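Entries read sequence, tokenised fold; example below:

***
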Amino acid sequence: MKNALLVGILGAAMSISCSTAKTAQSNKAEFLKLKGDWQVTSVDYDKNFKVKPFDEGADAQCFVGSHWRLIPNNWTGSYTLNGGGECPSVIQPIKFEVVNGNEFKFKKMLEGSKAKAVTVGYSLNLISQTTDGFSLEQNIPSNGENVRVVYNFARTGMK
């Protein structure tokens, strides 16, 4: 009787762990589709607010036209702001990860820093994804309120 109970418990535990592993593997496969070069085609938010994402000191509209390179096999990448007008020219290496299948987290990597030493980062939600585009959503505090900001990406190369 005890052996039958033990076998039942072990069987249930193994089926749960396999199911969780398959879900995680499926989520990772979806995010591997993000590999490549991307351009932010638009940034949507309530224009009544002044929004400066990712501590760049630049208005969210400065991210329109920015280039993002994502390399999921080692979870590294970068983004480049083109500059011009009131927008700075920035090349920023990042380390990113995907959590729970829909949370895109990244941290800015400063020269000479190691990812585990960087404790501050950004969390965005993946709200849509196709082969040639995806959208990330971020809530940014501004004037005591949270502003919903959506970054729309289009593939520019390397699948």
Summary: Residues 2-32 form the longest helix (31 residues).
